[in-house]
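If it is no trouble, might I ask you for a protein's amino acid sequence along with its backbone structure tokens?
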Amino acid sequence: MRRIGLIALGVAAGLFALILVAWFALFYSPPGRNFLKGVAADQIGGALNSDTEIGALSGGLPGHIIVADVRLADDAGEAWLTLDRLELRWRPLALLRKRILVDELTLADARLIGEPPEGEEQEQDDARQIPILDNLPHIEIAALDIDNFEAAINGERHSLDASGSIRLNGPDIAFFLNAESDAGADQTAIAFAKSPDSGRFTLDASIFADTNGVIASLLGLKGPTELRAAGESPVDEAVIAIEGQVGHYGAVSAQIESSFDDFSGADINAVVTPGQRFEGVEELSEPVSISARYDANDDGGALTLQGLSTAFADIEGHLDWRAPRGFVEQLNADLNAVLAENYQQIIQDIAGRELNIKGALDW
């Protein structure tokens, strides 16, 4: 028996030594690191449909990874993204407990040069436009830093810096982000948390966009933007209030009520005050108010207008649509409108002031 025990101990020691040698050969020898560098390039390239080159792989692998001089190119060999440094500090052994735990993830000096290659289109069976994610794995990123991400927008170079953290654990979600572009021309701060265990939902988000910043350039806002969204309530009675100005498009004040336990719809009340962009448009010469109910289902959705008040008409009614593959295939409408007394007298002479609009569109 003693002999068997000694043999077993010797075999275990040999296996441990073999694993130790393989560990050092893989993570600390030049051939091993070159092999890992090739694997990483293949994985990144496959995920982004690009040819990927990695200049160097260093750090105290596997828990501390530094990737330097990354280049992503299209099929023609033209680079569309370069990255000077990616640094990752994480806990590999947490994978044994089906967790991804990242202490620090840093992206430094990335440059978006061109358009990323298009991947293969995939059909989307879930037609809900606002999915509630309740089956996420346990993922934690304690510190996320993006340092000097550069991109050309409408022919002008812009830069972005950001920091934040993420925690995903099934239906429990916590997300924090602070970002700014072009030395403060755009500033974004978002704090979001949803926890069925505690039964609470919180949101505190603000966006400021200068006329010459990234957001205004992307969306053609032609004016400063300042938006605030906030909410603190039970998860099953979540209430979000939104206030702000969106460039020259106008101002918005809205309240959205929904359940984040099992999203099935939302009650929406909003007032939109058109801005300079719509000067001279008779139909948008006054604030637009809306009270509506959105209901989601597995293959489409519905919008019930309890009241839509505009300068030209008061409208109520119902819209529903089918979108089994993620885009609308059928739209049905049943709307009643009462035109403003002085609006389009010719139409009123022909059809009357009160209109009923029914129709169906198929694509």
Observations:
- Residues 1-26, 122-134 have pLDDT under 50 and may be disordered.
- Residues 134 and 171 are 4 Å apart (CA to CA).
